[in-house]
């Protein structure tokens, strides 16, 4: 059924099966944290991003304007140019939101 009919299963199955889909892989620790995440810079190709199994968890989806650039100011007065794209996370309810030290390291520090 097409979107809008109340049954989205076929739509989501099509996204999941597409070669254009990046899936946030649960269990893969992004930068050594409990967080699962995927990032991609923009190109001329379409990209879908899929987050599965969000049950009490939180997902952050950050999408920039295509083709734009920005300057990231680093310490020591050095600037880097970064190509923009998409960054999608799956933050786990436990332990990331239930333990203060894990929340700091796996959520706050990761986003900074």
Would you mind describing this structure in some detail?
With 112 residues, this protein is of the alpha+beta class. The chain has one domain (20-111). Helix content is 19%, strand content 29%. The chain is built from two helices and seven strands. The strands form three sheets. It has a three-stranded antiparallel sheet, with no helix packed on it. Strands 1-3 form a two-stranded parallel sheet. A two-stranded antiparallel ribbon has the order 5-6. Strand 5 and strand 6 form a beta hairpin. The longest helix has 12 residues, at 100-111. The chain is globular, with a radius of gyration of 17 Å.
Q: Would you summarize the structure shown here?
A:
The chain is an alpha+beta fold. It has two helices and seven strands.
Q: Tell me the strand order in the biggest sheet.
A: 2-7-4
Our count of domains comes out at 1
Order of helices and strands: HEEEEEEEH
- Mean pLDDT, to the nearest integer, reads 76
The count of DSSP E runs of length 2 or more, i.e. the number of strands, is: 7
Largest sheet: 3 strands, antiparallel
Sequence stretches where pLDDT stays below 50 over 5 or more residues: 68-81
| Distance between the ends | 41 Å
In DSSP terms, counting alpha (H) and pi (I) runs of 4 or more, how many helices?
2
Task: Provide the β-strand percentage band.
Answer: 25-35%
Query: Helical content, roughly?
Result: 10-25%
CA-based shape = globular
Radius of gyration from the CA trace?
17 Å
> Structural class of the helix and strand makeup?
alpha+beta
């Amino acid at each position: 059924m097409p979107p809008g009919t109340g049954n989205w299963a076929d739509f989501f199955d099509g996204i999941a099966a597409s070669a254009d889909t990046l899936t946030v892989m649960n269990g893969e620790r992004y930068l050594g944290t409990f967080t699962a995440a995927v990032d991609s810079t923009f190109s001329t190709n379409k990209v879908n991003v899929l987050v599965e199994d969000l049950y009490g968890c939180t997902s952050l989806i950050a999408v920039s304007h295509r083709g734009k650039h920005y300057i990231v100011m680093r310490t020591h007065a050095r600037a880097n140019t970064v190509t923009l794209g998409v960054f999608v996370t799956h933050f786990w309810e436990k332990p990331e939101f239930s333990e203060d030290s894990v929340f700091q390291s796996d959520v706050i520090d990761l986003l900074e």
